[in-house]
Amino acid sequence: MTTQLVSAVTFGADLRPSPALGPPTQTRFLELDGGRIAYDDTGGSGPLILALPGMGDLRSEYRLLCPALLRAGYRVVTMDVRGFGETSARWNDYSAHAVGRDALAVINHLNAGAAVILGNSFAAGSALWAAHDAPERVRGAVLLGPIVRDQKPSAFSRIALNIGFAWPWRVWFWTTFWDSLFPSAKPADHLQIKRALLSNLREPGRMAALEAMINLSKADTAAIIPKTRVSTLIVMGTRDPDFPDPAAEAHRLAEQLGAESLIVDGAGHYPHTEMPDLVAPKLLSFIARVHGRSSNDL
After folding, report:
1. Angle at the Cα of 53 (from 250 to 70), degrees rounded to 5?
2. Which CATH number fits domain 3-297: 3.40.50.1820, 3.30.360.10, 3.30.70.100, 1.10.10.10?
3. pTM for the model
4. Contact status, residue 278 vs residue 264, Cβ threshold 8 Å
5. Residue 86 backbone phi and psi in degrees, to 5
6. pLDDT of 229-268, one tens digit each?
7. SS3 137
8. Percent helix, strand, coil in the chain (nearest 5)?
């Protein structure tokens, strides 16, 4: 287990868009029992990266990491998880395990070899479930702000959630909370993304999906962690409000998984979006190792 702490005085990979990367990709759909999964695919013959956003968010969450991954020669696929984005809103199962099965369905559909899966928040558990169910299809897992076990909420938090998810202000409540998850820096296009998120969550069934996810126990995911053998990188912001002590949570999980960890000083729940220039170098180094590539290949 190795731990690295990075702060804003460190400068990493060039994340600026490049015309050579081509036009934006179009949404594709994979029909499954119970609904359809929306994803985009940069294409190419490079090793596969599959990125899963957290609950109540969109696959655009990974927009600031994609340029660095593309420059390094990877094929990047980003997927809207059950309930959100352009994926179907209504499902009979919103668990991390179910989303992990969706991730494997996309990997199998693409027929592009084993993938490294990036999972944020609850979807970190989905990355672990995919590796647990089909280790031959998952080369590595990157857990970003991972919520993979139950934590007892305070009485204030329970009251706030009950009030916040009442009509008619529940979309406003969630997006206001989402804003708070970027405590140090908001991306230049943050307001544009927020408008897209607001519009999406106002669609029928979206907020019901979010409420269902929030209320699900993560005990099943916690139970598979000691059995997981996939190469793993944990990325945690020191100001992630979902944890009383984010660094301690990262260290605890890293010990259980035998994982590497990156602690991003000042970042919140989305370190890869809030401070992508600090996350990208470690991310690229980790992915290169698990895909058996040398630094000369990047």
Report:
1. 95
2. 3.40.50.1820
3. 0.90
4. yes
5. -100, 0
6. 999 999 999 999 989 999 999 999 999 999 999 999 999 9
7. helix
8. 45, 15, 40
